[in-house]
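Q: I have 76 residues here and want to know how they pack in 3D. Can you give me a structure?
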Amino acid sequence: MTGQQQFVEDFGLRQYEYGDGVVLAADMGPGTDASVDVVDGTAIVVVAGDTYDLDLPAGDAQAFIHNGVLTVEVNA
C-alpha cells in the first residue's frame, strides 16, 4: 500500500476539483501532532511520527494544517 492510500484510509483524504485547480482535504482531528510541506509535486505529511507522501496534480501547490484539518490547494 502506498503512503497516499494509507493516508486516505487513516484520515479520509478528499479531492475537490474546481475550474482553476484542485483542493485536497483531510480531517485529522484537533490537537493532532502533524506538519506538512510541499516538495516537487509531493505533499509530505508527518502525523505523530508517521510520514505520508501524497502525489499532487501538476500546478502551484500550497499546504497548511489548521485545527487538525489538512488542506492542500493546487492552482493549475
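Q: Anything worth noting?
A: The radius of gyration is 12 Å. The mean pLDDT is 94.
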